[in-house]
Amino acid sequence: MNLRRLRLIMWKELVQLRRDRLLLPLIFIMPIMYVIMFGYVVGADVRNLPTAIVDGDHTVTSQRLTDAFSSSGYFVITQRPANEASLKGLVDSGQVKVAIIIERGTEAALTRGETVPLGVIVDGADSKTASVASGYAAEIVAAFDRGLLEKAGRAAGGPVLDARVRVMFNPSLKSVNAMVPGLVASILMLSIMVIMSQAVVRERARGTLEQMMVTPITRAEYLTGKVLPYVAIAAVQMTFIVLIGRYWFGVPFNGSVWTVALGLILFTLTSVGMGLLISLVSKTQQQAQQTVMFVMIPTMVLSGFIFPIESVPAAIVPLTYVIPLRYALVVLRSAFLKGSGVLDLWAPLTAMVVFAVVIFGLAVSRFRKRLAE
Amino acid sequence: MQFPWTKTDRPRPSGVDDGDAIVVSGLRKTFGDFVAVDSVDFRVKRGEIFGFLGPNGSGKTTTIRMLCGVIAPTSGGGTVMGYDVVDEPERVRENIGYMSQKFSLFQDLTVDENLRFYSGIYGLTPEKYAERRAYILRMADLEGRENELTGNLSVGWKQRLALGCATIHEPKLIFLDEPTSGVDPTARRQFWELLNDLANEGVTLFVTTHYMDEATHCNRLAFIYRGNIIAEGTPQEVKADLTADTILQIAVDRGEEALAALEGLESVDEGYMQGSLVHVNLGRRTAEDAGLREFLVDHGFEVGAIDRVEPTLEDAFVHLVTQQGGRA
Fold first, then answer.
1. pLDDT by residue (tens digit) across A235-263?
2. For the CA atoms of B181, B184, B189, B190, what is the dihedral angle to 10 degrees?
3. Which chain A residues contact residue B109 at CB under 8 A?
């Protein structure tokens, strides 16, 4: 490996990239756009749910409870029906997604130090909205209860409201937390696969690959010189995502840097390998583009990036095991958010090692052979 | 028929480097069942322009790639500038220049950046680079256009810059694979002047082309057909076989139809189109014997001049391929 030649190949690659009026801006706009899009839209918390309140109590307490709901930002009180009977119609017609029922005598019972039930009805038609709304309602009531207890000067066993909602799962109030580590992995894969396969295919179509192969450039130098610039670019993109996640969305980083780094390195090797394989099967840049799409769509859908694996039909689940991004997501999310170490994550890490060795190894050996032809 | 330049009559190379630029013996390459190059032998002397001719798919490019150390031969081998193409491909590549019909420049780099890249790849010193850069810019008529994107240059300039990049390290042997295809006649002539200059400096040129007029620039030629070298020698030697034959050039309307009709005649050995004119080889027969004009007029063609012409390399090429039982 001759460092002078390696440096030249990388320099050339970066100059070519700098001249690309479309690709260069895309490289930097893409991660920003994706993280904001996924952060706000896909991972968005459900807000402004149309809500009905049936206030049977008409007291200061019931008014404060109503305010607590409306000021949370998650619920907008749009209806104040006089009784429960009219609720069904409102929910059925979709005019409200949530209804809160405050029974008559609630304040009086609380004053007596009793626990009072509070009815929360959630429209179950949209399971995600329903479960998230239930979670919010429970949180608001819990916060309200803490206020009551404080006022009563007691830590527990005091007068509280008991929100009767079924919380189907503990809703993460910030789904963007799981989205950012996922985006890091997806952008890494997308970026390396797209840009690298394009660069190699273009070089072969224009004959410059053929030309370089009759110079003293070795295959190892060519491969390394081709791969490193795009890995560096992917690293810049990932840094963008992490910074936006950290400082814009406030995503915490509780993880071990080493575990994250290990996961990223393994996944980079896999992505480079996929990019090389795509450049091998594609004769034109358009074909490479289509092949990337062919790979990316199932990857996005079946890896758990957008839809949880739990929501994948049982018949299709076996397919998710051959999606490398699946394991990268587990490793990165756990390492980012929960601080899981290498030992905790040995199973997905092993899978990632296998993918990296098989895909990268296969790509490099095939690529070295095909360079000549 | 045996002629001094046919393959079977030639002494086989010993495989020992005796100073020839290229020595090839038994060089063979197969892809699966397909024999791309079938055990060819030839040698190229230092300082000569060696023309390597043959139709598309006949094994020209495969041979060059083996000689450049890019692909390994299935069997056989050879030396290039004294280095073994199988054992020392890196040394071979350091000592040759290569230019293909694609003028493999980086289109999105400037003229200067292309030169800088290739000079760095061959490890030129800064002084040497400055000298070669100045020379190439002058040679390619690109002085003052150093910062233009290569992709914006017209084809003639691209071609000369590609030659400059391929020869930036002053190799003593240059492979040129169809270097002038797709280039206009003026640029082709200019390009051949450059090649002649190089040859005068003692550089060996190994050129493939399918322009037969270009083949006449070569000191020696080899015809490759279906992986075999079917003839080798100077242009005169290659044409020598045909000098006793009668070659007629016929101006006729609907040339393709006329050619098809003429090829059915027993007196016509070979025929093909040369531009809009029909060439026929009557072998040792004379023009009068053949009665071609009457034949064509009878068949409703409008016949212009019929002239006896000296055999061209193209005539020789058609003749050789026909002898091999194929069509050019």
1. 888 888 888 888 887 777 777 788 888 99
2. -100
3. 12, 15-16, 19
CA distance B48 to A265: 53
Contacts of B92 in chain A (CB under 8 A): none
d(CA B184, CA A178): 61
Of A107, A142, A164, which residue sits at a domain end?
A164
CA dihedral B91, B93, B97, B101 (to 10 degrees): 160
| Sheet-wide strand order for B277-281 | B270-274, B277-281, B247-252, B303-309
Contacts of B102 in chain A (CB under 8 A): 206-207, 210-211
Note the pLDDT of residue B153: 92
Q: Does B123 touch chain A (CB under 8 A)?
A: yes
Residues A55 and A9 in one domain: no
pTM of the entire predicted model: 0.73
- Determine the length of chain B: 328
DSSP single-letter state for residue A356: I
> Do residue A215 and residue B121 have CB atoms under 8 angstroms apart?
yes
Q: CA dist B324 to A10, A165, A234, A334, B3, Å?
A: 50, 91, 57, 71, 15
Q: Rounded distance, CA B79 to CA B26, Å?
A: 12
Closest alpha carbon within chain B to A207: B104
Judged by a CB distance cut-off of 8 A, whether residue B108 touches chain A is yes
What is the maximum alpha-carbon separation in chain B?
73
ipTM: 0.75
- How many residues appear in chain A? 373
Alpha helices in chain B (DSSP H): 60-67, 89-94, 111-121, 126-139, 155-166, 185-200, 212-215, 235-240, 255-263, 287-290, 292-298, 313-323
Residue type, B137: L
DSSP one-letter string for B147-207:
TSBGGGS-HHHHHHHHHHHHTTT--SEEEEESTTTT--HHHHHHHHHHHHHHHHTT-EEEE
State whether A126 and A179 are in the same domain: no
For A261, the token pair is 């780094």
Structural domain including A133 reads 49-164
Q: Between chains, do A216 and B94 touch, taking CB under 8 Å as contact?
A: yes
Domain boundaries B244-309, CATH class: alpha beta
Are residues A186 and A255 located together in one domain of the fold? yes
Q: Flag if A372 and B120 touch (Cβ within 8 Å).
A: no
Tokens 């060795």 sit at which residue? A357
- B83 shares contact with chain A (CB less than 8 Å): no
Does any domain span residue A169?
Answer: no
Q: Exposed, middle or buried by CB within 10 Å (0-12, 13-18, 19+), for A194?
A: buried
Measured between CA atoms, the residue of chain A closest to residue B107 is A206
Q: Is there a contact between A208 and B104 if contact means CB atoms under 8 Å apart?
A: yes
pLDDT at B113: 95
Last residue of a domain, one of A136, A164, A192: A164
Looking at the fold, whether A77 and A141 belong to one and the same domain comes out as yes
pLDDT band at A373, cuts 50/70/90? low
Is A103 at the interface with chain B, CB within 8 A?
Answer: no
In angstroms, the separation between the Cα of residue B93 and the nearest Cα of chain A is 5
Question: Identity (one letter) of the amino acid at B197?
Answer: D
A57 SS3 class:
coil
- Answer whether B123 sits within 8 Å of A217, measured CB to CB: no
CATH number belonging to the domain at B7-239, selected among 3.80.30.20, 3.40.50.300, 3.90.1150.10, 3.40.190.10: 3.40.50.300
What confidence score (pLDDT) does residue B146 get?
Answer: 92
Answer whether A98's CB lies under 8 Å from A51's CB: yes
Residue A173 pLDDT > 50: no
How many domains does the structure of chain A reveal?
2
